[in-house]
Amino acid sequence: MNINLQTCSTDVKSFIYSIQKEITAIVNNDLLGFYIHGSIAMGGFNPDRSDIDVLAVTKKPIAVKTKRELAKFFLNCSNSPYPVEISFINKEQFNDWQHPCPFDFHFSEFWRDRYENELLRGTYDFINGDSPTDPDLAAHITIINHKGICVAGKPIAEVFPIVPRSDYISSIVCDFQECLICMEKDPIYCTLSMLRVFWYLKEGIISSKEEAGRWGLTTLPKELKSTVNKVMECYTSKKDDHEFENDELFMLRKYVSSNVQNLLS
Question: Does residue 2 sit within a domain?
Answer without folding.
Answer: no
